Amino acid sequence: MSSVTIDKAAPTRSVKLGSMSRDRKWALRWSYFFLTLFAIFSLLPPIYMLITSLKSSAEISAATNPWWVFHPTLENYVGLLTSNQFLRFFLNSALVSIFVVTITMLISVPAAFALARMRFWGSATLATGVFLTYLIPDSLLFIPLFKVFAQFGDWTGIQLINRWYVLLFIYPTLTVPFCTWIMIGYFASIPKELDEAAIIDGASWFQTLTRIFIPVALPGLIAATIFAFTVSWAQFLYPLVFTTSTDQLVLPVGIITTLIKGDVFNWGQIMTGALLGAAPPLIIYAFLMDYYIAGLTAGATKG
Amino acid sequence: MADVALQPDTVGTAQPARKRSGLQKALKRKSTAAFLMTLPLIVLIALLVLYPAVYSLHLATLNKSMQRFVGLGNFEFLFKRDTFWLVVKQSCIFAITAVLFKALIGFIVAHFVHNIPAKGQRKWRGMLLVPWVIPPAMSTLAWLWLFDPSYSAFNYTLSFFGIGPIPWTGDADWARFSVILVNVWYGAPFFMIMYLASLKSVPEQLYEAAAIDGANWWQRIWYVTLPMMRNIIAITTLFSLIVTFANFDIVRILTAGGPLDHTHIFATWAFRIGIEGSDIPLGASVSLFMVPILAVAAIFILRDVNKRGNEA
């Protein structure tokens, strides 16, 4: 509570009356109390993942206090990080996410630029269309998409189903509309004088985009990149539908289908895998939280 | 949205026309350049979103082996099944309850974060947003383990208070409670961060004026905060309604629709029928039932987005 006394600079909405500031002090105490409760609620599952991941299977099945690790061991981590299967899932996830982020940015940045700055026939309709596409959920499209890709295999002889790279075609349906949408917002906030001056100086539209818009809107680009990455990393439904062989699976599906054998749950390894799977987005978030939040509030992301 | 494309076409065409081949000139023209820049986007949306969406309407009219046109036969079949009505009911309970609690918790937590000195806010915001950052498939696994009937941490803890083992995912009502709880845990931070952003944009003078007029905190919330936040509350809630209604991972991993199909929502049941049961047309018909509610929410959101664009 020491921060209460040095709170002069913080926004205070109380009028300077004795009782008011006492009220405020209590309000502050209650705020911290409830925030602590909510933080515990928020962090409970990840902490429990960590606790379980440090236990041996003997300790997990013993009826001891589940909230404490009595004999910490790294055997789950060693087990997973030396298993070719798990590394394969990790690699698949990483490949899919990196490619999808690249594809997404290549498609959505020029499109957002054109939609934000170059009025052309149908541009307003298209912008609305992008927004509507962003509202169409994966759970509506997975069945027709599955059939479309199965048919594509029948017609061309190129089998895409059950190949990890089929996801490179499918994830952009989720990431591109969203990234385009937030990039339109960022680009629209750039003063018009900047690109008008560039055009008058003889820059082409493409040069205006690469030399002016991309550097100026870099925070927006970073936010969009983070989102494209987290969406592709976390996607569960599409890989579950489109891939089945263990060497083609991405992390979330891989953990669920291979670590659960029948009714036997190897919880130590499952929690370790889940924690390792949650790590990349968490690490990115730890370093780029402000971009993440800016993108969230700017784009009103899915939630 | 309105400021997206209001720049009149003056600069591009005012370029001096040099003697170049037609193609080069066409490439220099603004509309051509713009078309080329948006072409990949258009192709993607047309081939991988619009076409499948329309195609799913066609699929829904076929029989199981996709050889014969059955018209509305799939829908007729669905209407006669009790499971379908269970799914409708559960989808509505799930989406409405979860969104309500997410909005409520998000609103409360945003106020608490807004209340504390600006210095410490970053730390709290960071911790409270963690559920939203972890891939839901991963965090739901942690919840599944917390809910485990025999070794679960929850039942172990509750036993100290003399509360007997709760069949978290084994009993229909508890399973409903569990999937909603996990969804609220996952989605509340999103509301928190959106409300926090909009709280910060409420001018401080309004509260000072209200305080001078003798308004208590409840009146300040009711007459100042809520009206100022109305737009963002509406849009966030509608967004979340769409996503929650179409949720898949949480229900799939936590209960897989069980016990006895009591927690199936449209997405998970469509998956069970269409992919696992390989009755693609029937699965497509099931997921099409999500369209009306999504469309209604989308219309309201779009109206709001356009309104905001015109004001800006």
Describe this structure in words.
The complex is a heterodimer of chains A (303) and B (312). Chain A is mostly helical and 303 residues long. Helices cover 73% and strands 1% of the residues of chain A. Chain A folds into 2 domains: 29-72, no CATH class; 76-298, MetI-like (MetI-like fold), CATH 1.10.3720. In chain A, helix 4 (84-117) runs antiparallel to helix 13 (251-259) and helix 11 runs antiparallel to helix 14 (267-299). The two termini of chain A are 34 Å apart. The model of chain A is unreliable at 1-17 (pLDDT under 50). Chain B has 2 domains: 15-59, no CATH class; 76-311, MetI-like (MetI-like fold, Orthogonal Bundle), CATH 1.10.3720.10. Helices cover 72% and strands 0% of the residues of chain B. In chain B, helix 4 packs antiparallel against helix 11. In chain B, 41% of the residues are buried.
Number of helices in the DSSP assignment of chain B: 15
Number of domains of chain B: 2
Helix content of chain A: over 70%
Query: What is the assembly state of the chains in this entry?
Result: heterodimer
Helix amount of chain B: over 70%
How many domains of chain A?
Answer: 2
Q: Counting H and I runs of at least 4 residues, what is the number of helices of chain A?
A: 14
The CATH architecture of the largest domain in chain A is Orthogonal Bundle
Report on the biggest sheet of chain A: 2 strands, antiparallel
The greatest inter-chain interface is formed by: A-B, 119 and 115 residues
| CATH fold title of the largest domain in chain A | MetI-like fold
Overall 3D geometry of chain A?
globular
CATH domain class name of the largest domain in chain A? Mainly Alpha
What proportion strand of chain B?
under 5%
State the CATH class of the largest domain in chain B.
Mainly Alpha
Strand content of chain A: under 5%
Low-confidence stretches of chain A: 1-17
Protein name (chain A): Carbohydrate ABC transporter permease
GO biological process, one term (chain A): transmembrane transport
Family (chain A): Belongs to the binding-protein-dependent transport system permease family.
Keywords (chain A): Cell membrane, Membrane, Transmembrane, Transmembrane helix, Transport
